[in-house]
Each structure stands twice: as C-alpha cells, then as structure tokens.
Amino acid sequence: MRCTQWHRRTPDPAERDACRRSLKKKVSAMNRLHSRRSALAATLAGLALALTACGGSGGGGSSTPASGGSDTSLSDVKSKGEIVIATEGTYKPFSFHAEGAGDLTGYDVEIARAVAEKLGVKANFQETQFDGIFAGLDAKRFDTIANQISINAERKAKYDFSKPYTVSTGVIVTKADNSSINSFESLKGKTTAQSLTSNFYKLAVDAGANVQSVEGWAQGVSLVRQGRVDAIVNDKLTYLDYAKTNPDAGLKIAAETTDKSESAFVFRKGSTELTSAVDKALDELRADGTLAKISEKYFGTDVTK
Known about the structure:
Layout (H helix, E strand, L loop, with lengths): L12 H41 L19 H8 L1 E6 L8 E2 L6 E2 L1 H13 L2 E6 L5 H6 L5 E7 L2 H4 L2 E3 L4 E10 L15 E4 L4 H8 L3 E4 L3 H10 L5 E4 H10 L5 E18 L3 H16 L2 H10 L6
Parallel strand pairs: 1-4, 1-5, 8-9
Antiparallel strand pairs: 2-3, 5-11, 6-11, 7-10, 7-11
C-alpha cells in the first residue's frame, strides 16, 4: 500500500503509524534539499555580483583602477627606472650632437641628466622635431620636455611647468666701440638686422629702427661686425653662446629689456607629483652650484636665475 494514500482508507493503527514515520522522513529529506538549493543559489548570486563589480563581463580582462584619476606621474617614472625626455637634438647649444654626429649633449641635456640623477632614475632622451614635441607629450610618449620651452599663459593653461632653469632677456648687440646706442629708445633712426619672423623684429620696429631683413642671427651679427648695420636685437642667450665661442668678435651688449623670458621642464596637466620632485631636484642643483657650473660651461655666466 502506498503511504501517501493512507488517509483514503482505514488501515490498522500499526500500518498508519508506519506510514506517518515514512512521510516524516520524506518531508525532512525534502527540507534539507531545499536548504541546500537555497544556499547554492545565494552563493551563485554573490559570485555573479562580484564578477560584475570586477568588470568580469565583457571579455576584455581589464579593470578600472579604483583610484580613478589619481596622480601616478612620479611613481610611474620610479617604477620603470627612467624619465623619458623629449628634446630636438639639433638646437645648439641647448640640445645637439657633439661635432655633428657624436653623443647628445647641450645645456638642457646636461641639466636634465642632473635632474634625473637626483630623482634616482635614468634620463632617456627621445629626439623629436619641435613641430611634434607637444603632441608627443600629449600622447604620453614622453614624461617631459627639455628644449628651452618658454613659459607663457597659453601653455600654462594646458601644461604643468617646473621652476625655470633658464632666464633670459632681449638684448641690443653692437660693436664694442659704438657709444651712440645705449637703450632701446636710442635705436630710433638706426639700422638693425633682423629676421622678419622673429619677435625681436617687432621690438626693433617699435623702437623706431630701420630694419634690414636677414635670415637669422649668423647673417645679422656678421653685418654688425662689418659695420653695415648699427645693431641686432636678439635673445641674450644667443649672444652669450656666440661670445663664448667668438671671444674676439669685438661686440657688446648695449642694452637689454626689463621683461624676462623663463624656460622650464614641461609636463602633462595634473603631473603634480613629478613636477614637485623635479622642482626639488632643481632647488638642490641650484644650491650645490651644479646649475651655475653647467651654465658657465655653455654661456660664460649664470643664466639660471
């Protein structure tokens, strides 16, 4: 007799008790099975939630960093053991190859190497044409740029800058025996040699000079030495480099601007940790005389402050 049907009949007491015991066992077994299934379902649901939170669905295998937009600029440099520095390699005396095909050297290159040493990493230079140097920084091909990048409002809006390691002015260069020019006002009516595409062309014109067009510094300074023009207006660093290699040129700085141009390392916006570390390195290099020593080597004077 099937015990599930015992209530439809009138069995004897012994048989009824046996059926009750059998049913209790079945109910208990079913309850245990239900509990196990519920526990398994809860476990699977928790696992699915965890996978979703970790980005497990989608097959890419990558996850979004929990830190979101945290600044890892310095830790990235430290972890790879090098700082990647963009520079032209064709911009003497700042970044060039000795004797045209030798090792990369120059004022900016030596300062960048000294900074990297302070950071405890290697300086890895990537030579890049100037037209693409900022695009390379934006694309994270470099960590910074060391190429006499002047600080201005437009660039500061998009990039972070270190403290300046070069400070320069605009200067009037004349023959050493010229006593008629001693200020920008005294350029009025005088003839200067200028590249028409340079900022110094406008400076000369605004001062009232008659400008003779030249291709660049080399041609212009040659005309000054020959006495064919009265002066040339250009960057002080350009003159100092020329005077260092041509000490008998017979030229002098007759006047200079009060406005100063400052050049520094450039970083992607938000690279606060790396910028601060480079600032600290520059402060130490300035304090121990390293910056002045490098500057004296290339310009005969300290142009770092």
